[in-house]
Amino acid sequence: MSESKQGIMDRFQGFMEEKILPFATKLGNQRHMAAIRDGMSILIPLTIIGGLAMILAIPPVPAGLENTNFFNGLLLGWQSWAATYNATLMIPYYLTIGIISIYVVAGVSYRLAKSYEMDGINNMIAALLVFLCIAGFPDGATIQAGQLGAGAMFTGLLIAIIVVEINRFFIKKNICIKMPAAVPPNVAAPFNVLLPLGFNVILFLFLNMLSTDLTGGGLTMLIYKLFQPLISASGSLPSILLINFLMTTFWFFGIHGANMVSVVVSPITTMGLALNADAYANNLPLPQIFSGAVNGVFGNWITYTAMLIVMLLMCKSAQMKSVSRVALIPTLFNINEPMIFGIPTVLNVFTYMPLLICSMLNFSVAYLLMDANIIGRFFVTLPFTVPGPLQAFLATMDWKTIIVWFALLVVDCFIVFPFLKTYDKQLLAKEAQEEA
């Protein structure tokens, strides 16, 4: 690498280490943001179960399909079976993605309480009660489950955080019903949380009534409208490309990029997934592009596969060949750590540049095709180890996503090749020098 290019990289590295990385690390470790990140992680198995149940209940059978061959007959048989048992098959969806905000409240409040070394269960139950009072709109003995879906997620996040903070304030100020010393701790514990629980319920009921009087809608609707511009902005192509730039750059410096950006991204993509799943279940157009694992499937998962192909077929150094053999199976299942630490990609401009270029290109193409409704949008979450092209199909139930995935893989191979070949020549020269 020339001295001028080396100087540019040194200045870039210095800027990132001095300005960006400390802020990103502080953001990732911030107590409330970490609680959101860790609390949202409990939703992954729930959304997988709910999404798979919905696929079974609503098979992707085109209208007017005729039983002219074995495959069509299989699809029509699946459709008939799903129609017969639809009510039962949809139960897991309704109780997972359909009321996803309940799980958001539970996970975030529990994680935040534990970070303060407070009782996780009591705080979780308190937050759930407050949330149901506001978002569930109890009507006698009936709770409207439709009010507990994706649209209430941001309300759930705020209630989970505020309820725990109010409980913590009461504990710090020792504001509680004091029981005699002879009362066993397990009997006294419920009374210790009674005052903050009552305060939280009254406070949020009052805010909900005030919001209804002033805006004509409850607190849930008000918060959703306030966050709507954020949802739209964060789901735009420039915003996602910025996220990909940061994520790839964090990996360049040896920091887990996905973990760093998940603090901000997870609530957005999870909400997008739930909104899309609800639209799919009701046979409506899917509204969100930035949803589920779309950024991974149509991002660097493709690029790492392209790098593996180039290393296997074109590279000659012992290091690249040995890494490619070890990484072959893991990479096919989206486990990229063998390549990340084997090549390595940390502080390696020959991998940073193609990863950055390809991540921008891959997602831009996928985004524009989804925006034009040429390929489907993600409405199902799958285990991250499901291979990329299969996951693209199952998450969208659109076979065209497989073609796009492999087309991008071919393009990525051409982009990756000159960078890896140059790096391979350096490794060959180094290995020859060491043998001499």
UniProtKB/TrEMBL annotation:
Keywords on record: Cell membrane, Membrane, Phosphotransferase system, Sugar transport, Transmembrane, Transmembrane helix, Transport
Residues annotated as transmembrane: 40-61, 91-113, 120-138, 150-170, 191-210, 230-253, 260-277, 289-314, 326-343, 349-370, 377-396, 402-420
Pfam families recorded: PTS_EIIC
Keyword ATP-binding: no
InterPro entries in UniProt: PTS_EIIC, PTS_EIIC_3, PTS_IIC_cello, PTS_Sugar-EIIC/EIIB
Matches recorded under PROSITE patterns: PTS_EIIC_TYPE_3
Membrane topology: Multi-pass membrane protein
Domain PTS EIIC type-3: 16-419
Compartment(s) where it occurs, according to its Swiss-Prot or TrEMBL record: Cell membrane
Entry superkingdom: Bacteria
Repeat listed as a keyword: no
Entry-linked NCBIfam families: lacE (TIGR00410)
Function: The phosphoenolpyruvate-dependent sugar phosphotransferase system (PTS), a major carbohydrate active -transport system, catalyzes the phosphorylation of incoming sugar substrates concomitant with their translocation across the cell membrane.
Name the UniProt record assigns to this protein: Permease IIC component
